[in-house]
């Protein structure tokens, strides 16, 4: 039971980053405050920390392989879309704004600003 709870907790925590929620998935019978305390205790254990670090490293490596494969795809549309996604993850989404201004400005108006 303990190992199963630990495995389920680690998987859910690695996916969500929510320790209390992960503990509630592993042990649904626990009230939120009890799950919070249990999750905190679980994350204090050196062996759990090591397993979590290893799991996150594996997930990171897999994500990097997938991104690299997409970026180097022979399909130009996939490669371009993937490159755009990577840039958006690093720098945030670009905001496109098209502004049309119609008006009349005199030379005097421009000179008065200068």
Describe the structure.
It is a single chain. By secondary structure, the protein is mostly helical. The chain has a domain at 1-44. It has 6 helices and no strands. The chain has helices at 2-16, 19-26, 32-44, 46-71, 76-91, 107-113. Helix 1 (2-16) runs antiparallel to helix 2 (19-26). It is elongated and about 80 Å long.
Summary keywords:
6 helices; mainly alpha; 0% strand; 114 residues
SSE inventory with pairings:
Elements lengths: L1 H15 L2 H8 L5 H13 L1 H26 L4 H16 L15 H7 L1
Helix pairs in contact: 1-2, 1-4, 2-3
In short:
The model has no long low-confidence stretch (mean pLDDT 85). Helix content is 75%, strand content 0%. The protein is mainly alpha-helical and 114 residues long.
Whole-Å distance between the termini?
A: 77 Å
Low-confidence stretches: none
Q: What is the 3D shape?
A: elongated
Tell me the structural class.
mainly alpha
Helix content: over 70%
Give the biggest sheet: none
Write the H/E string, N to C: HHHHHH
Task: Give the strand content.
Answer: under 5%
Q: Rg to the nearest angstrom? A: 26 Å
Mean pLDDT: 85
β-strand number: 0
The number of helical runs is 6
């Amino acid at each position: 039971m303990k190992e199963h709870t630990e495995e389920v907790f680690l998987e859910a925590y690695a996916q969500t980053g929510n320790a209390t929620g992960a503990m509630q998935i592993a042990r649904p019978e626990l009230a939120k405050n009890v799950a919070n305390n249990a999750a905190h205790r679980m994350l204090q254990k050196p062996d759990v920390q090591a397993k979590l670090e290893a799991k996150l490293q594996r997930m990171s490596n897999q994500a990097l392989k997938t991104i690299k494969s997409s970026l180097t795809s022979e399909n130009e549309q996939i490669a371009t879309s993937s490159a755009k996604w990577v840039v958006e993850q690093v720098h945030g989404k670009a905001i496109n704004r098209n502004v049309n201004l119609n008006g009349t400005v005199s030379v005097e108006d421009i000179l008065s600003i200068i």
